[in-house]
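Researcher: I'd like a candidate sequence for this fold, 465 residues long. If you have to choose between options at a position, lean toward the conservative one.
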């Protein structure tokens, strides 16, 4: 039996990690050279590493630890549930109280008409469920050919074969034969990077109208659904222009195309409402949930399904499910997470305290010569880096170089801020306080200054021609 404790020297932990652990979305050989940072514990919005650094986690883990680290209530509920019933399946005419309670609570919190939940172990799995469910729905309604799904380039819906195909990450499609047939990608509403001289409003409309063009190209009778994140997360926190979603909604209504809102990041308060669909004025037929559902304490995902689809799916045997669909421990922790969110008025905190302070700080960081703009919705944001502020120019050097340099300098200043290409991404725990947002501000400013200095000294502030 290998015993590994936090008390081993960091180098030893890193060597063992490199020898046996294959990290996701990582060039492991490069990481081996550098050595992975060993995270040993967390409290509130801070992480601690094996060298004793206290790191402000402005990514909430991976967009998920919305209540922060070290919430004893979540821990206690998990322990209690493990004692009482650590596992039982929900396949064979059985159920249990945690899953009953969680489904009912989600139906209560979800927008009107979304009253049914199919559980999964993750966001990826839930989107695989959605892919099959919308196709089965149309087939049962007598339209088996209505099976194509439209999605967006640079959207993120997970990493399984199905969800990776729904996603529009071309670097993922390049590996392993994705996307599977029947999935089509249109352009994203990224005005900052792609809007050129158009106003955001014009650009938002134009990008939404790509959906109409694609539906007409495929034939509306062949299109089952459109899937999108209300605000793109992993693609770089891209807040669509305000003309975008109303036009998407109009098009989907007109051609009888279902809307799947992927709420894995936007859900549970991230944008200031329970769901990003509410913030963006979307009327979805299915919502994908995961991440913040349990504040990341345990893995759980699911699909919140509208009455109309549930009525059809419930009338047949849907030959689909996961061993851990509605896992009792995960369901109990998720339910407790939702209870805390309500009892502690987390949405009020976000809307009245955290988001205004966050926005004020972002606006100040937006003044930095290296920052080309500010994208923010509630408690998710991005700061795109640029060598030339006025024109939102891209760097002449390889995409992501400046972003990576900035991320490394964040780490050096005890701040986790991720980069997607040359955009810095911020998604802190929702419980963050104004004082903590000030600490974020100081560290982010230092990292931007350090990056700017290094770019200047390296003569790297050149714009793409
Ligand atoms: C993270 C994410 C997923 C995938 O969830 P996993 O739990 O990693 O499988 C799906 N959709 C969106 C929008 C996400 O951000």
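Model: Candidate sequence:
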């Amino acid at each position: 039996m290998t015993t590994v404790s936090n008390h081993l020297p960091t180098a030893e932990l890193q060597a063992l990690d490199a020898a046996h652990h294959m990290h996701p979305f990582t060039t492991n050989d490069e990481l081996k050279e550098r050595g992975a940072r060993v995270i040993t514990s967390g409290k509130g919005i801070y992480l601690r590493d094996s060298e004793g650094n206290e790191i402000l986690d402005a990514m909430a883990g991976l967009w998920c630890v919305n209540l922060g680290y070290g919430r004893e209530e979540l821990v206690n509920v998990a322990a209690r549930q493990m004692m009482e019933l650590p596992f039982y399946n929900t396949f064979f005419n059985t159920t249990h109280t945690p899953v009953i309670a969680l489904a009912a609570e989600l139906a209560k919190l979800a927008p009107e008409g979304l009253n049914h939940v199919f559980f999964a172990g993750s966001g990826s799995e839930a989107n695989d469920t959605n892919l099959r469910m919308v196709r089965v729905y149309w087939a049962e309604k007598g339209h088996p050919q209505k099976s194509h799904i439209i999605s967006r380039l640079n959207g993120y819906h997970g990493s399984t074969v199905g969800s990776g195909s729904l996603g529009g990450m071309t670097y993922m499609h390049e590996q392993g034969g994705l996307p599977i047939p029947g999935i089509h990608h249109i352009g994203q509403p990224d005005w900052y990077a792609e809007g050129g001289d158009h106003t955001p409003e014009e650009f938002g409309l134009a990008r939404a109208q790509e959906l109409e063009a694609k539906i007409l190209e495929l034939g509306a009778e062949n299109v089952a659904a459109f899937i999108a994140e209300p605000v793109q997360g992993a693609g770089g926190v891209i807040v669509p222009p305000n003309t975008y979603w109303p036009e998407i909604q109009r098009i989907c209504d007109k051609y009888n195309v279902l809307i799947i809102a992927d709420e894995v990041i936007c859900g549970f308060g991230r944008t200031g409402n329970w769901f990003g669909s509410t913030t963006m004025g979307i009327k979805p037929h299915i919502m994908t949930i995961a991440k913040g559902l349990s504040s990341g304490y345990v893995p759980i995902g699911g699909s919140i399904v509208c009455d109309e689809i549930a009525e059809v799916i419930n009338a047949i045997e849907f030959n689909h499910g996961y061993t851990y669909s509605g896992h009792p421990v995960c369901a109990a922790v998720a339910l407790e997470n939702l209870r805390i969110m309500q009892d502690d008025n987390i949405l009020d905190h976000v809307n009245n305290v955290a988001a205004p302070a966050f926005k004020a700080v972002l606006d100040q960081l937006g003044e930095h010569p290296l920052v080309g703009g500010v994208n923010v919705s509630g408690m998710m944001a991005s700061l795109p880096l640029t060598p030339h502020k006025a024109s939102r120019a891209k760097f002449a050097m390889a995409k992501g170089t400046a972003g990576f340099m900035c991320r490394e300098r964040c780490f050096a200043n005890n701040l986790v801020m991720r980069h997607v290409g040359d955009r810095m991404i911020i998604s802190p725990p929702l419980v963050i306080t104004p004082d903590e947002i000030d600490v974020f501000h100081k560290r982010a400013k230092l990292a931007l200054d350090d990056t700017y200095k290094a770019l200047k000294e390296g003569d790297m502030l050149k714009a793409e021609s």
